[in-house]
Amino acid sequence: MDGLAEWLRAASARLGIDAGQVDSAEIIRLARDVRRAESGPAAFMAVYLLGVAVGRGADPHDAAAHLADLIEERSGTTCDWRD
Fold first, then answer.
1. Buried-most residue among 38, 46, 52, 59 (CB within 10 A)?
2. Helix or strand (DSSP H, E) at 13
């Protein structure tokens, strides 16, 4: 098991989350797109806001799509996240 997968498993266990429900590749792509279009700190905030939205019942993919829309609107570029 690679380091990220092990960390995800351990962190999920600590937080009482099923690690199988976390799409780490989607989250990483979204954070990378935000970092490219905005700034490093915005990437951390985007991931946090995604977690808050999902915690409040939003579909993870839909919430990430809304953030990707915002990135595209602000930067005028297409997000890799949509690939």
1. 46
2. helix 3-15
